[in-house]
Design goal:
Length: 265
């Protein structure tokens, strides 16, 4: 496990259309760690996810986001992605006419161009050869127990909720990010789909990947075991602990945490 955290969120304040949503969020995620961020609706969890990836609607009014020691605040979303940050969306967008395989190869080639100095420092490689990409895609789909026909389908077009989330996990497997943020990946999934997605994340987890799972409920954490659990209420992380904290929230609900915050403050 790395000594220094790859992702550092430092006293982050974020506003949307002039309304402050995040009110001083601080969090560190290292490769090899799995963090869960829990909280009620409207607490700011998805705002944090979108801000991390540079969504233009979210204005950073204070604090910083650093990735591998570099401030991300001024970087565009594609630049953040090429650095090794990944966001699995709560509601993935369908792109009719673009196959999963073509989308993944294009995204991978953009990542390889960044790694090889596509900014002009050194000649960028032309991209992964088709045969090499097919072998890579086949191996990752086998790891995730996905049928190979999935690669020929248009991206998220006509996909079920579970298939959309599995497509996100396949993107993670191909792009190999260093830190993955999963924004309510369990949203809308039945038990079978949740287990499949969780098994995929577990298969990818390891010393080269840090994961931040954003969720309302404990159920995904029954399958993906976090090292740390954080609770967000009112735009702040009000409490952090180990995996037992998720079970406590399951039993007591978020009102208990709100009351605790009021007493502590």
């Amino acid at each position: 496990m790395s000594q220094k955290p790859e992702l550092v969120i430092d006293d982050l304040h974020v506003a949307v259309e002039g309304k402050e949503i995040l009110r001083g969020v601080s969090l560190e995620v290292k490769k090899g760690q799995i963090h869960a961020l829990m909280g009620p609706n409207g607490s700011g969890k998805s705002t944090l996810a979108n801000t991390l990836m540079g969504h233009p609607r979210y204005e950073v009014t204070g604090g910083d986001i650093r990735f591998k020691g570099e401030s991300m605040i001024e970087l565009d979303p594609d630049e953040r992605s090429r650095r090794g940050l990944f966001l699995a969306f709560q509601y993935p967008v369908a792109i009719p006419g673009v196959s999963m395989a073509n989308f993944l190869r294009t995204a991978l080639n953009a990542r390889l161009a960044e790694e090889s100095g596509g900014n002009g420092a050194v000649p960028a490689r032309r991209g992964i050869p088709p045969k090499e990409f097919r072998e890579l895609l086949k191996s990752k789909m086998a790891l995730l127990k996905m049928d190979e026909s999935f690669a020929g389908r248009y991206l998220n077009d006509g996909f079920s909720g579970g298939e959309k989330k599995r497509a996100e996990i396949l993107q993670m497997a191909i792009l190999k990010p260093e830190i993955a943020v999963m924004d309510e990946t369990d949203s809308g999934l039945d038990i079978d789909a949740l287990r499949v997605v969780s098994d995929g994340v577990t298969a990818l987890a390891g010393p080269d990947l840090g994961v931040l799972i954003i969720t309302h409920y404990n159920r995904i954490l029954n399958y993906i075991k976090p090292h740390f659990v954080h609770v967000m209420v009112g735009g702040r992380i009000v409490h952090s602990g180990g995996p037992e904290l998720a079970l406590e929230l399951e039993n007591k609900g978020y009102d208990w945490m709100r009351e605790k915050q009021e007493v502590d403050s």
